[in-house]
């Protein structure tokens, strides 16, 4: 089979590899779509020991197995099913296994991968291939962040919400916020075309760096230090700042009176529990037309090096690697 290799230094090459042989409790998945994700910029720059790609949709190809032919997404946290977290439904925070598909085990920038059976999320037939991967990071991660906040600190009155960063996660966040009942949504980003897309979804623009207004809820989706620091400053008293965007850089927090003199929540959420999946499928069903607008390219494996470069430069929102 063909697979992508990420040696580092912003390079991607293609290689021939043997089709993986599934181990006990695993099945072989023939990949149909893998969405590009901004977090893959890290293996792109630094290199990866395994094939990256973690927003994976495909079909189980294991004749004789009960799951043969099942259209499935790959839920990336491998989980044991019986630790304290798993028993509470927090499958994304398993305490005995700390392995992510596409990060610690081979991922979806290849024609096939072996997937532990508990990591298959069956996709209903009315969800088309191009939209299926959005059920993971774009919808799963953002909807979980919002649901977590609604349980932690139910808004006393529905105030204005700010989304910082209008990439696929931020834009997916706007749609999830609307679906979960928020109406007054502002978005900040440096890219004009992304702001226009957010506006077409019913959000209003908020200037990057503007500290003149306070927000009850801030969904920080950029991972940028400046946006995190500003978020702490402009989150309203008793409000919530959610750090959804990824960054593995140390974050220096500046001494600032506006931060010291108020009660507020700063929340980190990661991915989503498997139990959210059915509700997220419903969310996607209701909003298919708008989510479809995030998918702005579809291409084959041979184009991955070029398309990843364009994606990393911010030219594309949610391009899909597609296998026929
Ligand atoms: Zn991702
Ligand atoms: Zn567990």
Question: What's the SSE blueprint?
Answer:
Blueprint: E1 2-8, E2 11-16, E3 26-35, H1 41-46, E4 56-60, E5 71-74, E6 77-78, H2 84-87, E7 99-100, E8 112-116, E9 120-122, H3 137-152, E10 161-164, H4 168-179, E11 185-188, H5 192-200, E12 204-205, E13 215-220, H6 225-234, E14 235-243, H7 257-260, E15 265-268, H8 277-286, H9 288-292, E16 298-299, H10 304-312, E17 320-322
Helix pairs in contact: 3-4
Bound molecules: zinc ion (ZN) (2 copies).
One zinc ion binds at residues 79-80, 83, 85-86, 94-96.
The gist of it:
The protein is of the alpha/beta class and 324 residues long.
What distinguishing features does this structure have?
alpha/beta; binds zinc ion
What does this structure look like?
This protein is an alpha/beta fold and 324 residues long. The chain is built from ten helices and 17 strands. It has helices spanning 41-46, 84-87, 137-152, 168-179, 192-200, 225-234, 257-260, 277-286, 288-292, 304-312; strands spanning 2-8, 11-16, 26-35, 56-60, 71-74, 77-78, 99-100, 112-116, 120-122, 161-164, 185-188, 204-205, 215-220, 235-243, 265-268, 298-299, 320-322. The strands form four sheets. Strands 3, 4, 5, 8, 9, 16 and 17 form a seven-stranded mixed beta sheet that branches. α5 links the parallel β11 (185-188) and β12. α3 (137-152) packs across α4 (168-179). The longest helix is centred in the middle third of the chain and has 16 residues, at 137-152. It is globular, with a radius of gyration of 20 Å. The mean pLDDT is 95. Bound molecules: zinc ion (2 copies).
């Amino acid at each position: 089979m063909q697979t992508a290799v990420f040696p580092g230094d912003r390079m991607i090459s293609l290689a021939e590899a043997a089709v993986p042989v599934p181990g006990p409790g695993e099945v072989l998945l023939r990949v149909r779509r893998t969405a590009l994700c901004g977090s893959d910029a890290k293996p792109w720059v630094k290199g990866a020991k395994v094939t990256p790609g973690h927003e994976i949709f495909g079909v189980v190809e294991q004749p004789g197995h009960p799951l043969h032919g099942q259209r499935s997404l790959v839920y990336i946290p491998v989980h044991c099913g019986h630790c304290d977290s798993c028993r509470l439904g927090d499958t994304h925070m398993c305490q005995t296994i700390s392995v992510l598909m596409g990060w610690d085990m081979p991922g979806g920038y290849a024609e096939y991968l072996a997937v532990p059976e508990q990591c298959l999320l069956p996709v209903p037939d009315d969800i088309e291939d191009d939209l299926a991967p959005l059920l993971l990071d774009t919808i799963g991660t953002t909807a979980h962040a919002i649901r977590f906040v609604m349980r932690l600190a139910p808004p006393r009155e529905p105030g204005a919400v700010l989304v910082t960063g209008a990439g696929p996660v931020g834009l997916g966040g706007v749609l999830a916020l609307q679906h979960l009942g928020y109406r007054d949504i502002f978005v900040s980003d440096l890219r004009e075309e992304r702001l226009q897309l957010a506006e077409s979804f019913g959000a209003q623009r908020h200037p990057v760096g503007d500290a003149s207004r306070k927000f009850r809820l801030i969904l920080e989706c950029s991972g940028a230090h400046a946006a995190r620091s500003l978020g702490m400053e402009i989150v309203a008293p008793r409000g919530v700042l959610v750090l959804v965007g990824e960054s593995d850089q140390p974050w220096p927090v500046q001494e600032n009176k506006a931060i010291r003199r108020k009660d507020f929540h700063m929340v980190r959420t990661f991915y989503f529990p498997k139990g959210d999946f059915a509700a997220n499928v419903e969310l996607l069903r209701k909003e298919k037309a708008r989510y479809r607008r995030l998918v702005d390219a579809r291409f084959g494996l041979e184009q991955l090096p070029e398309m990843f470069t364009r994606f990393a430069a911010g030219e594309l929102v949610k391009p899909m690697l597609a296998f026929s």
